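Sharing a chain and its predicted structure for anyone who wants a worked example. Both blocks are below, sequence first, tokens second.
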Amino acid sequence: MNVSSRGPGPALAIPALAIAAACCRSTAPEKPVVLASPAPMAEFWAEPADITARDLLDGEGGPALAPDPAARFTFVRAKTTGSSPGYTVTDARGVTWSVKMGVEARSEVAVSRLVWAIGFRQPPVYLLPSWTLAGGPAPGAQGPGRFRPDLPGWSDRGSWLWRDNPFRGTAPWRGLIVFMRLVNNWDILDRNNVLYDLDPPRDGVARYYVVRDLGASLGRSTFPHQGSKNDALEFDRQPFIGKVENGIVSFDNRGRRHHDLYENISVEDVQWTCDRLARLTPEQWLDAFRAAHYDQETAARYIGRLRQKIDEGRALR
């Protein structure tokens, strides 16, 4: 099975098992793999013209695209991948939505807002604290759900690899790894990454490299086992920086997946990410967690701890 890719250079797809066998990766993607080809940085990250102007309440999609909380969403199929329950549904406007439910729904939305705020590519996502399902195995009132629209012109071409991509070794790539430790995303997997083809192009590029599944965040990392998710108390308790030697940073815990990516992260890499997050206004911080419908006490706890980590990173020498 081959996957074509827009932009300069071909992107090939090979079976996931072959990737695992050939490269000894610990977790094989569940869908086609898009191998590295030359690509402009803007497909992965672009410095916002004004970080303080970013709308973290409505995010990439803005308010016009947001799902209607009063709508009835028609069941299409149940979610069959990943650890979180969910559905594919449609609404009266004809929009198809991927809905993730369970413990990851809120953390995914909040973290998506923050990583998008500092320039990394993200799809539109929203959180409905309650909604109504029409049809399916359990119709009626539903609990919190992360809603991601299936947008015309956004084609999922497959998974891009953490260790084999056009941006490996660059400051934004290392900065994204730092961000994953800041939010304690302990389950970074190749299969959670997506390369979107964009037709028409957006922001001057025809592809987006996205870390799409961010739900295993805002809890505690516990190498080599699974950590917690969306747990403010555990998140608050875990240290960020372990030590610094010869300008290289060791984190308190690197999660259970791809922990080798955290080797050779420099003080400058940590400051790259922390300096950008430090530009967010207090209102933007609140909006990122309002978007995920956290209560005020929980949001304040997360924001306080994140800002402590940012100050810690910026103070490194």
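Comments welcome. Residues 296-314 form the longest helix (19 residues).
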